Amino acid sequence: MTKRIFRAILTVSLAVLLSCLVLIVGVLHGYFETRVERELQSQTVYIGQGVENEGMAYFKNLDFQSRVTWVAADGTVLFDSWEDAAKMENHADRQEIRDALKTGEGRAVRFSKTLSQKTIYYALRLTDGTVLRAADTQYTAWALVVQALQPLALIVLIACVLAGVFASRAARQIVRPLNQIDLTDPSDDGDYYEELTPLLSRIRSQNRQIDHQMRKLRRRQEEFTAITENMGEGFLVLDTRTRVLSHNTAALRLLDAAEPAPETSAYALNREEGFRRCVEEALSGRRSEQLLEKDERCCQVIANPVFQEGHLSGAVLVILDVTEKERREALRREFTANVSHELKTPLTSISGTAEILENGLVKPEDVAHFAGNIHREAGRLIQLVNDIIRLSQLDEGQPAAEWQTCDLYDQSRAALEQVRSAAEGRSVSLELRGSAAPVRAVPRILEEIVFNLCDNAVKYNREGGSVTVTAQLRDGVPTLSVTDTGCGIPPELQERVFERFYRVDKSHSAPGTGLGLSIVKHGAAYLGASVDVESAVDRGSTFTLTFPPLQP
């Protein structure tokens, strides 16, 4: 405000100064022009009397202050004080000469653009019919200003400085009472302008209203922030130009985006096609849902338009992390497909064999063989159902029996004896290493874990391979490792081998239900142990169980 007042005062001062200068120059120029014309008239009358008395001789001793020209009645120049009369053109067409011949005197003003001058002419007809003319030059107002430019510039500069000083002082004095007003709590006790009293009263009233509204808004903002920041779901509020008006930390985390700057478009947070489509459809007035998949994360984006008074004013986006849900859904579908496959194979075999027996197509001596096939496939079904039931019990944490102190070395020796016949059938050598390694466990679960590890090591081994089981205490920590020389597991599949029914060999050529390692993982978790796998393709695998140390 001070600057505006300063500029206003300075502008007015300079305008008045320039107006005065223009007025003074104009008045003086007009005054001098009238004065020159009068002097020319007096001079012409005086010289005319001398010419009438003495003729051409009068000009010889005359001191000319202005240009004097004597013209005959026909316009011929008889004498000129500046030029040779004989070389001058006829002056009969000059305005002042024509007027003088007609009325007795004539006046004319001619302007020279080149010299920025004007010449004033006065002509007087003498008694003998000739015309005597006097002329004098006068600078134009602009020429006078140019000639006086240096002093005028100095005057204008001094005037500008003085005007600036006085304008600055006046502006500060005018604004000082306004600057002293405390807008947060204006009172009538200050040195204020009387005209500001209604304004100060209104400001006090508005301040009270604003304080009340601000407290209310802060309380709502705190409540809103507390709710949104503690949400696991992402939350975005957009305007019609896709700019982010509000968001929570979860939204940035789920979209893998940085903190947006003010006026940032939502498209800068995520550039996937699904996210863009969600925003576009919501801002066109339609509800939209999209799945965003990136790396191992899966997010569901739900976008709803926001209407105010019947007009679209923006959109609200809710972002849900459905990674676990989608993973479980995928596992459920895969589990259902695997169960169906695993159940269908033995059931098909049993059904086909029973149909053959029912139709009497089997020779009496072959009945035992077909019955054995039915018995074998039924046993496989029973084993599969038992494994599923066992996994379900482990998932639910149902206690199988009392906890006891068991020896990993003894359990390993018993498991190797159980798989020895299968190993001999494939020429796989078995070796047990280590020493006693007591652990606290449920015997039945520990037996299932060790057996499944040894059984898998034999089933997935190569012909003539080897299986080495090592039970020992490493720095007081019981560990059990089972190493085979089989086909190995690719690195990207080593985590998946513990999934139910998952097999690296998709042809299911190896016998078994595909639940062995899943039972190992869940049983180890139940006993508080961890399972690690190290494997290389065509070089074999090593599964290591690490149990909690036995408490004394």
Summarize the structure.
Helix content is 48%, strand content 22%.
Helix count equals 12
Under CATH, the topology of the largest domain can be stated as Heat Shock Protein 90
Radius of gyration: 58 Å
> Outline, from the CA principal axes?
rod-shaped
The helix fraction, in percent, is: 40-55%
Structural class: alpha+beta
Q: In order across it, which strands form the biggest sheet? A: 2-1-5-4-3
As residue ranges, the low-confidence spans are: none
Compute the number of strand runs: 17
Can you walk through the features of this model?
- The chain has 552 residues and is α+β, with helices and mostly antiparallel strands.
- It folds into five domains: 2-147, PAS domain (Beta-Lactamase, 2-Layer Sandwich), CATH 3.30.450; 187-230; 231-321, 2-Layer Sandwich (Beta-Lactamase); 326-391, Signal transduction histidine kinase, dimerisation/phosphotransfer (DHp) domain (Helix Hairpins); 399-546, 2-Layer Sandwich (Heat Shock Protein 90), CATH 3.30.565.
- 48% of the residues lie in helices and 22% in strands.
- It has helices spanning 2-54, 95-103, 141-147, 149-179, 197-229, 249-255, 273-283, 323-358, 367-396, 408-425, 443-459, 516-527; strands at 67-71, 77-80, 105-112, 117-125, 131-139, 234-239, 244-247, 288-294, 297-308, 311-321, 404-407, 429-434, 438-441, 466-474, 477-484, 530-536, 540-546.
- Strands 2-1-5-4-3 form a five-stranded antiparallel beta sheet.
- The longest helix is centred in the N-terminal third of the chain and has 53 residues, at 2-54.
